[in-house]
Amino acid sequence: MAEEASTSPTLSKRGARAFEESAHLLGLASFLETQYSNQNPNGVVNFGVAENTLMQDELKADLNANLQLQDLDFTYGDHMCGSTRIFKGLARLFNRYFKPVSPVEPQHIVTGCGVTALIDQVSHLLGDEGDLMLIARPYYNGFNNDVSLRSRCSMHGVDTGSINPDSPQTLAAFESAMSQLESEGKTACAVVLCNPHNPLGFNYRRETLLAYCRFAEKHDLHLVCDEIYALSQFENEKVADKVPFTSILSVDVKREAGCNPARVHVLYGMSKDFCANGLRVGCLVTQHNPDFRNAFVGTALFMKVSSAADALWSRLLLDDTLLDNFVKTNQARLRATIKYCLDWFEARGVPCNQPTTSHFIWLDLRNYLRDRDNDGNEFATDRERDKDLWLAFLEAGIFVAAGYAYTSTLPGHFRFTFCVRRDVLEVGLKRLESVLKARKKT
Ligand SMILES: Cc1ncc(COP(=O)(O)O)c(C=O)c1O
């Protein structure tokens, strides 16, 4: 006789909450399984996730041919927070490209399996449960999960209105937000700056970085600078006076802004500038806060980079010629591809911003929103109208990210990842065009 099975065992309260709070990611997970590829030509073309596929052929050939593992790579290695090899490589990278005020040393660095993992740890170590991290809107949507799912902190998006988003005046909105939060008895632990900016594709000017430093000092906050797109720079012929990338590492925050440098931490990774999201390597640089770095030791193994990925990135980082060639070629391809895409949108009369960095074009698709669904029911909100267009893109076989996911308050704005291999880009743009043609208001 068959035995009667018990009811399913329950998850912990944390587990149940994790399931509930990440349910919205299930859609993304199922999209990832159905992506377009040569083997899956009917799959969805990805213009929604920040992946740069322009250097895939070179990376594949080079890394497949040159993975050289040492005996040490089959052990836990020589450092809890990474390896002496990758620390050396990263220190060279920062000292070569980020113009630090004082040289970045191996002992300033912690590595982890992607910036996502590092943000999780950073929020865990800098914030207590319920603490807020302030950031200008719109902002990279991944931050929300990264700081909340385990650390129970949350992002607090600050609306800076119609002021140029890279200007120091935006900090006035942060001051108001801070007063409001204080009056509500809420605590902030950090201010987050994404430079270059995701999703808007600009570099912050130096005086704005200084304003952030003063703000952090005034309110006793950490300043977490995500510089993951630092080297994804390109010229845009429509922008005569491009603001160059300035790393916070190159700012003497104490002398120039009276900010304690122990507040300042930089995130960087292999995913974007090195076109290798899948290898899962990221790092944190904290030059003047050894306590913070040491606080990672206990949990560093939760996010330790696989030695194979460490070896692959280190190879690029430790060879100046290889590194310079890679960065230069990637930038040339970004430049050619963005020009191709901007021309494409211009030819079709689609308004958009003029990025000079990162992987994105911010499209203004208000002209393609509908007021009613197929059954004639009127949409009640801008969000419903945006979602309707987003679904139309998906049905046509493309994933373009809706601006509301980045807490944008502008209706009809979408983030388009342009750095897609030309063969795939052309397939995707054709599909995009079919939706635009069907939707354009006369
Ligand atoms: C600003 C920013 N930070 C962090 C990440 C996540 O990077 P990683 O792949 O290293 O986890 C992304 C990915 O899109 C990003 O845009």
TrEMBL record:
Q: What is this protein called?
A: PLP-dependent transferase
Kindly state which keywords UniProt assigns to this record, in alphabetical order: Pyridoxal phosphate, Transferase
Origin organism is Punctularia strigosozonata (strain HHB-11173) (White-rot fungus)
Entry annotated with the keyword Phosphoprotein: no
Q: Which GO terms describe its molecular function?
A: pyridoxal phosphate binding; transaminase activity
Alphabetical list of CDD domains matching this protein:
AAT_like
Q: Which GO terms describe its biological process?
A: amino acid metabolic process
Query: Can you give the residue ranges of the Aminotransferase class I/classII large domain?
Result: 44-432
Q: Which domain of life is it from?
A: Eukaryota
